[in-house]
Amino acid sequence: MKTAEILEQFHQIASSPSRQKEAFLQAGKKVVLVAPVYTPEEIIHSMGLVPMATWGADIELKLAKKYFPAFICSIVQSIVELGMNGTFDGASAIVVPSLCDSLKVLGENWKYAVPSIPFIPMTYPQNRKPAYALDFVKAGYNRVISDLEKATGAKFEDEKLKKSIEIYNQHNAAMRKLEQVLANHPEITAVQRNDIYKSAGFMLKEDHTKLVNELIDTLEESSTDVQKIKIMTSGILTDCPSLLSILDENGFQIVANDVASESRQYRTDAPAADTGLDSLALKFSAMDNCSVLYDVEKKRVNMIVEQARQYGAKGVLVVLTKFCDPEEFDYPLMKKACEKENLPVLLVEVDRQMTNYEQARTMLEGFKDMLQA
Ligand code: SF4
After folding, report:
1. 175 CA distance to ligand 1 middle (Å)
2. How far apart are the first and last CA of the chain?
3. Measured from the CB, is residue 75 less than 6 Å from ligand 1?
4. Is the distance from CB of 92 to CB of 30 less than 8 angstroms?
5. 276 C-alpha vs ligand 1 centroid, how far in Å?
6. Ligand 1 within 6 A of 73 CB?
7. Domain spanning 28-159: which CATH class is it, in words?
């Protein structure tokens, strides 16, 4: 397949999660929704169920307003809106991790707002490094397994989990390689790049890995003269087509990212261990460099500077989801660290209900002039 054809496949999948869901259901599969972030998808996959990501959608909030105050992030609000308006009908359950206050509220409200789709909590400890944390995490996984068995009738087997972990580790490796390859291919637009990352949530990981590897192969066989302004992105979610189009119109290339819906989830593999559950618990314990993972030293901040330098980014674009406390806490430290290294930072605040990006356009045009000066 040619690059354009592969990119079109990613686009079709990324832009039609409902069609993907219906296709899985018609094939006799059961779909389990996975809310962000670090939901143990491997467990769901190993039970023969299809994990489908939900990061909400750019929609007007109507029904969900009954359950949330206005000052809570629009990702969780729009997930509930989609649940209430029937978009998720047919799903067997939703698994929601407990890694920020908004996600905790999402789970509790979901039980009342969308009673037809069972809510399954995944409770993580914030202190994830000590040995006792591993037992806590495993207890959380066992709770998820027993709730999944109840909701779907599927059965858990640790040997199958080990196989799914292998599939997810292979996907992680493909996504890490993709990031390096895309850095050398500025002809791939920010919009196309987003399709590749987004589609991962709506496909079985073995299928996504295959398509990503095909893309990598075709890109590695080609070269380009296109030159753009290299930037790094950071944030929870950059799935904003209007914002990404402005990046493309202004000649920006995303060469590296520290985005939760993109590379953050692919940085850490599950290591080999006696059981699949041990392996998954060790993976969570080893994770770092994320605003929702407790770290008193905030090592993430230096990682961003180092990564931007490594990929030759001239500046860092922080896409801040409105009312996201974990990211708001990290931002001043990140800005200080970047500016100390003469790495310009631009903050653009986004919201899943935003329709007008003209203010962001003006800011990005100014950022472009600054980076080219
Ligand atoms: S965007 Fe921030 S506040 Fe919202 S769910 Fe993610 S981490 Fe929590």
Report:
1. 23
2. 40
3. yes
4. yes
5. 28
6. yes
7. alpha beta
Question: In a structure prediction context, what are the per-residue pLDDT tens digits for the chain, which is 373 residues long?
Answer: 799 999 999 999 999 999 999 999 999 999 999 999 999 999 999 999 999 999 999 999 999 999 999 899 999 999 999 999 999 999 999 999 999 999 999 999 999 999 999 999 999 998 999 999 999 999 999 999 999 999 999 999 999 999 999 999 999 999 999 999 999 999 999 999 999 999 999 999 999 999 999 999 999 999 899 999 999 999 999 999 999 999 999 999 999 999 999 999 999 999 999 999 999 999 999 999 999 999 999 999 999 999 999 999 999 999 999 999 999 999 999 999 999 999 999 999 998 877 788 999 999 999 999 999 8
On whether the CB atoms of residues 256 and 179 are closer than 8 A, the answer is yes
- C-beta of 165 in contact with ligand 1 (< 6 A): no
Q: How many CB atoms lie within 10 A of CB 131?
A: 7
Atom of ligand 1 nearest to the CA of 76: 5
Residues 326, 330, 332: CA angle, nearest 5 degrees: 135
- Residue nearest (by alpha carbon) to ligand 1 atom 2: 324
Same fold, 28-159 and 222-372: yes
pTM over 0.90: yes
Architecture, CATH, for domain 222-372: 3-Layer(aba) Sandwich (3.40)
Q: Are 228 and 182 contacting, i.e. CB atoms less than 8 angstroms apart?
A: no
Cα distance between residue 10 and residue 203, in whole Å? 10
Q: Give me the residue spans of the domains in the chain.
A: 28-159, 222-372
Ligand 1 contact, 326 CB (< 6 A): yes
Among protein residues, the one with the nearest Cα to ligand 1's atom 1 is 324
Ligand 1 contacts CB of residue 324 (under 6 A): yes
Instruction: Answer whether 316's CB lies under 8 Å from 322's CB.
Output: no
Our answer on whether the CB atom of 76 is closer than 6 Å to any ligand 1 atom is: yes
Q: Is 270 in the pocket of ligand 1 (CB under 6 A)?
A: no
DSSP structure string for 63-111: GGGGTS-SSS-HHHHHHHHHHHTTTTTT--EEEEE-SSHHHHHHHHHHH
Say what angle helices 325-340 and 299-310 make with each other, to 10 degrees: 50
